[in-house]
C-alpha cells in the first residue's frame, strides 16, 4: 500500500485547474476493468479527465486502481463519487466537477486515513479550487448520517499491545477490562502487483460482544485493518493467516480501539482455557 500512496501523489502533482474546460473531449464507455468506478451511477466518461489523463487503457484504468485501497477503507460514503468525478467525469453536455462542499466532506473524513499512513491530503486536491454550491456541480448527500451515527467507527490509533505468550489470568483480565473480545482470522494476501492487503477470513466469533453489532463487526474490523495498515502488517506475515483474540473498547467519540491482542496458536492452551473459564467468570 505504500506504493499506492507514492503513486497517487505523483498522479496528483499537477493542479486540477490546469485542465482546460475549452478543450475538445470525447465520450467513452467506462471499461469493466475500471473497478474503482463500478456502480458509480453512469456508464460513460469524458476523456481527457480532470486529472489530464487521455489514454484509457494505458493511463486512466491503471491509475484509477491506485485509489482502490483508500476507497476500501470506507473513509467517506461519497469518496467513490468524489474521486470518480475526477478520474471518470460523467459525460454530459457540460462539465460536472465535484462541489467544494463535497471535497471538504471527503477530505475531512479521508485525510485522517492518509495521515495514518504518513501522508497529507494532496495539495492538488485543494478544495478551494472547486465550484461553490450555487454552481452546477456534484453536491454531498447527508441522508446516510441518520443510519450510521450510532455505529462504532474505526480510526487511526497507536498499535495495540501484542502478547504472544499470555497467562490465563492476563487473558481473563483483558476480557473484563475492555468492552469487547472476539476471535478472528487475520489474513495477509498479495495483490497482483505485489502489494500486501489485509482481510478478515471467515467468521468473527464473539467472546464478549459489548457494544458491537453482529452484522457490522466483521466489516468494522476489516476497515480497521485497512486504515491501520502499519499495525496490521506487523500482525501477520505476507501470504499467511493467523487466528487472534482481539480485545478493545469503543471510545466516547464512537471510534473503535483495539487495545490488546493475543495470537491464538494451536499449541497455546492458555488462551483456550481462558475462553472456557470466561463463560463462568464474573469480573
TrEMBL record:
Position of the signal peptide: 1-18
Residue pairs linked by disulfide bridges in the UniProt entry: 103-127
Annotated Gene Ontology cellular component terms: extracellular space
CDD domains assigned: NTR_Sfrp1_like
Domain of life of the organism encoding this protein: Eukaryota
Pfam families linked: Fz
GO molecular function, one term: Wnt-protein binding
SUPFAM superfamilies (alphabetical): Frizzled cysteine-rich domain, TIMP-like
Gene3D superfamilies: Frizzled cysteine-rich domain
Residues covered by the FZ domain: 22-140
Main location: secreted
Subcellular location: Secreted
GO biological process, one term: canonical Wnt signaling pathway
Keyword line: Developmental protein, Differentiation, Disulfide bond, Secreted, Signal, Wnt signaling pathway
Family in the record: Belongs to the secreted frizzled-related protein (sFRP) family.
Listed name of the protein: Secreted frizzled-related protein 5-like
Gene responsible for this protein: szl
Amino acid at each position: 500500500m505504500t506504493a499506492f500512496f507514492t503513486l497517487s501523489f505523483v498522479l496528483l502533482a499537477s493542479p486540477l485547474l490546469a485542465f482546460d474546460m475549452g478543450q475538445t473531449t470525447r465520450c467513452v464507455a467506462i471499461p469493466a476493468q475500471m473497478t474503482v468506478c463500478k456502480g458509480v451511477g453512469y456508464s460513460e466518461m469524458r476523456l481527457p479527465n480532470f486529472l489530464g489523463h487521455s489514454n484509457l487503457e494505458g493511463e486512466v484504468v491503471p491509475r484509477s486502481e491506485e485509489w482502490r485501497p483508500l476507497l476500501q477503507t470506507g473513509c467517506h460514503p461519497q469518496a467513490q463519487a468524489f474521486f470518480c468525478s475526477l478520474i471518470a467525469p460523467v459525460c454530459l453536455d457540460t462539465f460536472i466537477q465535484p462541489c467544494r462542499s463535497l471535497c471538504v466532506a471527503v477530505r475531512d473524513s479521508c485525510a485522517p486515513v492518509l495521515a495514518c499512513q504518513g501522508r497529507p491530503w494532496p495539495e492538488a486536491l485543494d478544495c478551494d479550487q472547486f465550484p461553490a454550491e450555487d454552481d452546477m456541480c456534484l453536491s454531498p448527500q447527508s441522508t446516510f448520517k441518520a443510519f450510521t451515527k450510532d455505529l462504532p467507527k474505526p480510526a487511526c490509533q497507536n498499535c495495540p499491545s501484542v502478547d504472544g505468550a499470555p497467562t490465563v489470568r492476563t487473558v481473563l483480565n483483558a476480557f473484563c477490562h475492555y468492552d469487547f473480545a472476539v476471535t478472528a482470522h487475520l489474513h495477509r494476501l498479495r495483490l497482483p502487483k505485489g502489494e500486501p492487503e489485509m482481510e478478515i477470513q471467515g467468521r468473527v466469533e464473539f467472546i464478549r460482544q459489548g457494544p458491537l453489532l453482529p452484522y457490522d463487526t466483521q466489516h468494522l474490523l476489516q476497515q480497521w485493518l485497512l486504515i491501520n495498515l502499519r499495525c496490521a502488517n506487523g500482525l501477520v506475515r505476507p501470504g499467511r493467516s493467523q487466528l487472534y483474540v482481539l480485545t478493545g473498547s469503543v471510545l466516547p467519540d464512537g471510534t473503535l480501539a483495539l487495545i490488546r491482542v493475543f495470537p491464538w496458536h494451536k499449541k497455546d492452551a492458555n488462551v483456550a482455557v481462558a475462553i472456557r473459564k470466561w463463560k463462568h467468570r464474573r469480573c
